[in-house]
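Encode chain A's predicted structure.
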Amino acid sequence: MSSPIRIIVHGAAGRIGRSILDLLHRDTRFVLTAAVVKPGSELEGQPVANVVVPGEPRYQTRLDDLDADVLIDFSTPHAAVQALQWCASQQVRMVSGTTGFDQQAMQVMQQACQSTAVLHAANFSLGVALLMRWVREAAAALPEWDLEIAEAHHARKEDAPSGTALALGRVAAAARGCDFEQCADLVRQGHTGPRQPGHIGFAVTRAGDIVGEHSVLLVGRGERLELMHRADSRSIFARGALVAAAWLSGRESGRYELEQVLQGMDSLQSR
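Encoded structure for chain A:
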């Protein structure tokens, strides 16, 4: 029997970080090395509840002197960049779901990929990863059909459209050989005139406590195709991150995508 994968949860006080810690309690593939929170957190020094592993890990604010196989990050862009640099220096693999990276942060990620394995995704739902695959195939197979993307999230979400919606649009544009920046209609207001052929439209809803919904509508003459994913619980993102961590463990340095994790699952099921 192989040894458990040693995990650091970075951003452990956040909603997804807490979900990951809860799942680790029941997942024998992993052992928790540390739960890292932001400096000044009231959790610092406290034992991690619901996680029973050797050493009784506690919440801490620094990555120094830690040892692990994989770091799972759901934090802030600034904290994630620091974690990337630490992972590169320690050759610890990193799974990150942090969004909002600027160009400089993306350069840090590219540099880190030269020293360790990094898997970054805007959405760790395996269902969304499959949706991305289907959108790519449908957009390429039906290049003349109009394509619209709609997303809905809770009222507290601050960015729009969502990172996942934008990623779906980029996948569709690439499948059709289009420049996303030129063909994306992110805002429609006033007298817009007729729809431009080949453009991708976006619609946004912010209301209540909606976890996340994404739909892609392709419309041709006399028929339409709708691809949709609904998230009912944030735990799906935590489960997806753990699947990615298990897959990434042992991988060579480089940049990896969630689609590759799906392909790996496909090959296992086909054996």
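The chain has eight helices and twelve strands.
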